[in-house]
Write a structure and sequence with these properties.
The structure holds 2 protein chains of 2 kinds. Chain A has 9 helices and 20 strands. By secondary structure, chain A is an alpha+beta fold. Chain A has a 6-stranded mixed sheet, sandwiched between helices. Chain A has a 5-stranded mixed β-barrel with strand order 11-12-13-20-14. In chain A, α4 crosses α5 and α5 packs parallel to α6. Chain B is globular, with a radius of gyration of 23 Å. Chain B has 22 helices and no strands. Chain B is mostly helical. The longest helix of chain B is centred in the middle third of the chain and has 35 residues. In chain B, α3 packs antiparallel against α4 and α13 packs antiparallel against α22. Classes of the chains: A alpha+beta, B mainly alpha. Chains A and B meet through β6 of A and α18 and α19 of B.
């Protein structure tokens, strides 16, 4: 069942077109990440779903009901959306329990068992219930904001870059805790983010936005492995782009003959390979040899930039991602092989 | 929007009155009224008083702020309280304290002395707040670039103090231009006292209005000058990052002189008026405690103050709301419109309202409503500033969140906005209350017959040299002001932290 259905959504601010013909479906009890660079319109899309803005054209259905089209827009208060803004925006004059219970009916606000359930669900100690927002850490504030949004059982939870203000270590933890809570309550969620790691690791579906349009929608795996174009490929991770000649399901490029996955018309093309598809080994006896230019060491892994020694005078540089423990040093000669297929983009 | 417009229209009545009557007087008549030796004398008096007292306040206020905030002066918390406390003593009570002891403070020197002692906290407060908020990293960086202590002070600290110093000096100047009671008592005539005398002797007349026009012009010049001097320079901290506590300068052998200086300042600004008041209360031959009269004056003062505070805050709220939540040219202009009252001394507001009431709304003349209206016009800027600051505590993002949780706009206002802005509004109301309950000039002109506030009762006794009789009223006025002064100090401290 589809929880959020968006068709042909468009919005302009004066002369500036912010969204153009956006279509997006979010299945019930799933999480969709809307990923894109800043200024691509992703936050505007979220604010349209929330009802803080009204579209110029197109329709938004929530839980099968039409909530906005070009002529009318149902007020936010009657859309049953949970909204988690970037900085959490807890009500500073209310304690944690009162914040979480804010959207509940008066009688349920009193009882307090819903608050206890949600605190537990988000992995927060019950002792926090009487604390005030300024007494919480950033991660705790964000978890409380999510609990508050989940409390009234919303049709959809909208998260606007909810983890971007957190430290990187805290970000992953908080993200996981929030996702578990969303799954446990069977909530449908739309997560806006510019962080590809976050989008790929947390969401069931990723919608990549660019210039006010949706460039590609798919599972994280599809987006990463089968990007529709070069820009998508480079936005969701590092990519090695090489010119190639395609024929019979294989491409001839600087890395030699590489299998090609997906649709490929024969002739000149550009192929994409992810750095982790490149394997480095000893140079003796290798079919393809490269010289290491530099190494960016990250601990768990390392990015190695190499110059392939194929055609003299025609330098081709590629990046390989290797295990941090076995990373070569600049100047080393290494053998290079390709694991898995390339992708024509 | 309509409501806010109405409020601003009301605030603009005095300015419109002054402008209209100046035009109505005609050029030749105005020239005859203004180009007199007497006016030149008043202008000279006013200008040299403002210059003298502003410079003295700026120097004393800044030095005191630096001592309290940047050195290891012993008892800094107590000093902060003592250095702000003169604000709780109205200037005319301060001058009564001095003049009842010695007539030698009459004239220019005494006027500068007493005005400085009364108003230097207006510089001290913002400068101290800024010093507290300065990022010590800037000074450390300057030191690392090879600047000595004095040069750091001159090239890094002072430039950053500029807005606070200018703002404080502007406040002192505006207060001085509007000051009536203190100067009248010290027999130092300025525009404001002359307008009052003119009004009392000839009941309005174009002469008073012409003088008022010059006074308003002076005030507006000051406001524009301050804006110019402040410029558009951004002095905000660049980048975030936690600010650390400052390292205080060690006074060492300068500790005793510094303590002596702050003690002297406190004795002069606070000790003299309080001691003098105590003396008159205890031993004055004319001291009497007419309990009924005291009680009724206190009740009247509290009632008028509370009424003015409530109405002012209610009037300020829509103006501030529009300016904060819907900042467009029109709404910002509306908000700025209320600030013109800053440039309008009480005497001008009173004069305008008297004339307008007599000419067009006769039944309003000599009513409490008219007096409260004057208070509202005069103190609207305080209300708007407080309401603005309060609304900043309630960002519209919280409204969005509240709406997403199924709350209607009205409920959101009740459950989110109101609880958040209430403390700010309350402190705004307290500020208006303290100002209204010690207001003298407009109250003298506008209060209905038989209405005696603490200030007017004090005034009628002290101006007939019944110093003992005046003392209890003065003491009560100070008592009434103390809580609100405390609030003001706390607010300044908090705004420095934000």
């Amino acid at each position: 069942m589809t929880s959020v259905a968006i068709r042909g959504l468009a919005l302009s601010f004066g002369e500036h077109r912010v969204l153009t013909g956006v279509d997006l479906d979010v299945a019930a009890s799933s999480t969709t990440a809307v990923l894109g660079p800043s200024g691509c319109g992703k936050t505007t899309l979220l604010r349209l779903i929330a009802g803080f803005l009204a579209p110029d054209a197109g329709t938004i259905h929530l839980g099968g009901e039409l909530v906005a089209d070009a002529t009318s827009s149902r007020p936010t208060a009657r859309r049953r959306v949970g909204y988690v803004p970037q900085e959490g925006a807890l009500f500073p004059h209310l304690d944690v329990a009162a914040n979480i219970a804010f959207g509940l009916a008066r009688a349920r606000r009193r009882s307090g068992d819903r608050v206890a359930d949600l605190l537990e669900l988000l992995g927060l100690s019950p002792a926090l219930a009487t604390r005030y927002p300024h007494e919480l850490s950033g991660g705790q504030q964000q978890r409380v904001a999510v609990a508050r949004a989940l409390a009234p059982d919303p049709a959809v939870v909208l998260l606007d870059e909810p983890f971007s203000s957190l430290d990187s270590g805290l970000r992953a933890d908080t993200g996981r805790a929030v996702l578990q809570a969303l799954r446990a309550t069977g909530a449908t969620a739309v997560l806006v983010t510019h962080d590809q790691d976050e989008a790929l690791s947390l969401a069931d579906q990723v919608a990549l936005m660019r210039g006010g349009r949706i460039a590609q929608v798919g599972t994280p795996r599809q987006i990463y492995q089968a990007p529709v174009d070069r820009a998508v490929a480079e936005f969701v991770g590092e990519a090695v782009m090489l010119p190639a000649m395609v024929a019979d399901g294989a491409a001839t490029c600087a890395l030699g003959l590489v299998g090609v996955q997906g649709p490929a018309t024969p002739g000149a093309a550009s192929v994409m390979i992810r750095p982790e598809q490149l394997r480095l080994g000893r140079s003796q006896g290798a079919r393809l040899v490269g010289r290491v230019l530099d190494v960016a060491y990250h601990g768990h892994d390392a990015s190695v930039r190499l110059r392939l020694a194929t055609h003299p005078g025609e330098d081709v540089d590629v990046v390989a991602r290797v295990d941090g423990a076995t990373a070569p040093s600049p100047g080393d000669l290494v053998g290079v092989s390709v694991q898995g297929p390339a992708r024509v983009v | 929007m309509a409501l806010a417009g109405l409020v601003v229209l009301l605030a603009l009545v005095p300015l419109a009155f002054v402008a209209a009557s100046t035009v109505g007087t005609g050029w030749d008549e105005a020239r005859r009224l203004l180009l007199r030796p007497r006016v030149g004398e008043l202008l000279a008096n006013t200008v040299r008083l403002v210059l003298g007292a502003v410079v003295a306040s700026a120097v004393i206020g800044t030095a005191a702020a630096w001592l309290v905030e940047r050195t290891d002066l012993p008892g800094r918390r107590v000093w902060t309280a003592l250095l702000v406390a003169p604000l709780a003593v109205p200037a005319f009570v301060n001058s009564y304290g001095w003049v009842s002891l010695t007539a030698r403070v009459e004239g220019y020197g005494g006027a500068v002395l007493i005005c400085t002692l009364s108003y230097f906290p207006l510089v001290f407060l913002p400068v101290a707040a800024t010093l507290r908020g300065l990022d010590p990293a800037l000074e450390e960086t300057a030191a690392s670039l090879g600047l000595g202590r004095v040069r750091v002070l001159r090239r890094v600290v002072l430039p950053q103090l500029r807005p606070a110093l200018l703002g404080g000096s502007l406040l002192v100047s505006l207060h001085l231009l509007a000051e009536f009671g203190a100067l009248q008592m010290l027999r130092f005539p300025t525009f404001t006292t002359a307008i009052y005398d003119q009004y009392r002797s000839s009941f309005n007349g174009p002469a008073a209005t012409a003088l008022a026009a010059v006074l308003v012009l002076l005030c507006l010049l000051l406001l524009v000058g301050e804006q110019r001097a402040r410029g558009d320079r951004r002095l905000a901290k660049v980048g975030s990052g936690a600010t650390r506590a400052t390292v205080r300068h060690r006074l060492q052998r300068w500790t005793a002189p510094a303590l002596a200086a702050t003690t002297a300042l406190t004795v002069l600004s606070l000790g003299v008026p309080v001691a003098s008041l105590g003396y008159w209360l205890a031993t004055g031959s004319s001291t009497s405690f007419p309990v009924a009269a005291l009680a009724s004056a206190t009740a009247t003062t509290l009632g008028l103050g509370a009424g003015a505070a409530a109405v002012t805050v209610l009037a300020a709220l829509p103006v501030a709301y529009l300016a904060v939540r819907h900042p467009r040219l029109a709404t910002v202009l509306l908000e700025r419109g209320t600030y013109t009252a800053n440039a309008l001394p009480g005497i001008v507001v009173a004069l305008a309202l008297v004339t307008v009431a007599i000419r067009w709304v006769q039944p309003a003349y000599q009513t409490t409503a008219l007096l409260v209206t004057a208070y509202v016009i005069m103190f609207l800027p305080r209300g708007v500033v407080s309401a603005r600051a309060a609304l900043a505590q309630a960002p519209s993002l919280l409204d969005d969140v509240s709406a997403s949780l199924g709350t209607s706009p009205l409920q959101t206002f009740r459950r989110v906005t109101l609880p958040l802005i209430a403390p700010g509004l309350a402190s705004g109301a307290a500020l208006v209350f303290i100002a209204a309950s010690t207001e003298l000039t407009a109250t003298l002109l506008l209060s209905p017959i038989g209405t005696r506030t603490l200030a007017t009762a004090f005034w009628s006794s002290s101006s007939s040299v019944a110093y003992g009789e005046a003392a209890p009223y003065a003491a009560l006025m100070i008592l009434v002001s103390i809580p609100a002064t405390y609030l003001l100090t706390r607010q300044a401290r908090r705004s420095a932290r934000a």
